[in-house]
Amino acid sequence: MNERRRFSTVATDDGTTLAVHESGRLDAGLTVVFVHGHCLRMESWFDVRDELEQSWGADVRMVFYDHRGHGASGSADAESYTIDTLGRDLGAVVRAVVPTGRYVIVGHSMGGMTTMSYARQHLGEVGERLVGVGLVATASSGLAEEGLGVCLAHPLLAMFQSAVRRAPSIMAITKRMSRGCAPPSSGLPGADPAASDRGSSRWRQRCSTTPPSSQWQDSSVHCTTSTRGKALLPWPSYRPSCCVGPRT
Predict the structure, then answer these.
(1) What is the DSSP letter of 108?
(2) How far is CA 76 from CA 15, 99, 109, 112, 116, in A?
(3) Alpha carbon 236 to chain centroid distance?
(4) Which residues are within 8 A (CB) of 55 and not within 5 positions of it... i.e. 6 or more apart?
(5) What is the three-class DSSP state of 100?
(6) Has this prediction a pTM greater than 0.85?
(7) Which tens digit of pLDDT belongs to each residue from 96-127?
(8) What is the pLDDT of residues 226-246, one digit of tens each?
(9) Domains (range + CATH), the chain
(10) DSSP code string of 63-91
(11) Which of 55, 109, 139, 145 is most buried by a 10 A CB count?
């Protein structure tokens, strides 16, 4: 393992544990904090880290961390998953691993929103210690007003959201239905053959008199996680939404 790379944890204001990774010298003159996007994890920056380590060496320290509920960080109450809370989480990381010196924050997607939330909460840091920010493919508002975000206002999306919210209760119903319709196994060790025969008889009677009126297919919503920074590969029309940094 690279001796200049370190892993640790940071506790947020509400006690949620965040996984943190550092690269570079602790006494570096500048620290860059990278904040990943929704459904990603700190590893989405690691290809960038590898390239920058070659360019910057150990003179610039880099800090990466997983948002709450992402990667190796702990989960929390669902009501705490807000941009304001993520901004405070970023504040906890900065206090713990960048207590002194100048630093820059680079945020991708939801990480950019987190960065803006943090800056709003810590205006005294801006221009003093926080000497630059990089905002990649993110927005401060109006997500459903331009570009692909217009699709967010489509009625089909609202229907999908409703289906996702109701999916757990629907799946519970289908599991109960399947238990009532599936025959008990008589091959299990210790099973009572007589009880199994009675259960099988009831099962055959039920399925022959009340066939299911429809079929349910188990489905789930998956969040694909990139572990090697693929989300940051340039698309033909890709460009950062905004990039602001210190004057040189």
Answers:
(1) E
(2) 9, 25, 21, 21, 22
(3) 25
(4) none
(5) coil
(6) no
(7) 999 999 999 999 999 999 999 999 999 999 99
(8) 333 333 333 333 333 333 344
(9) 5-141+227-244 (3.40.50.1820)
(10) EEEPPTTSTTSPP--GGG-SHHHHHHHHH
(11) 109
